[in-house]
Amino acid sequence: MGIIDNINKLFDHRIRLGIMSILVVNEYADFNRLKELLEVTDGNLASHLKALEKEKYILVEKQFIGRKPNTRYSATKLGKTEFRKHIEALEKLLKK
C-alpha cells in the first residue's frame, strides 16, 4: 500500500476539510454555525455540504425552531471513518 493511498480527494478543499473537522468533534452543527466558523458565503458552504452529502459523509436534518427553518449537519459513521483515514494518511506522510 502506497503512502498516499488513504488520502481522500474529497477532503482536499479547505472548506470540506473544515466542515468535517467541525462535525467529527461535535455531535452536529447548523448551517449558520458552520458559516460563522469557516467564514464563507452561503453559496460556497452549500456547494461543499452537497458534495459531502452526496458521498454520504454527512447527514442533513431539516427542522423548524419556532417558526424559523433550521438545517443541521452531522458526520455519518462512514464520514468519520473516511476522515480519520485521511488524517492518519496525512500524518504518516508528514512523518516520512
Describe the structure.
- It is a single chain.
- The model has no long low-confidence stretch (mean pLDDT 94).
- A hairpin with a 2-residue loop joins strand 2 and strand 3 (68-75).
- This protein is elongated.
- 54% of the residues lie in helices and 19% in strands.
- With 96 residues, the chain is α+β, with helices and mostly antiparallel strands.
- The chain has a single domain, classed as Arc Repressor Mutant, subunit A (Orthogonal Bundle), CATH 1.10.10.10.
- 17% of the residues are buried.
- It contains four helices and three strands, in the order αβααββα.
- The chain has a three-stranded antiparallel beta sheet.
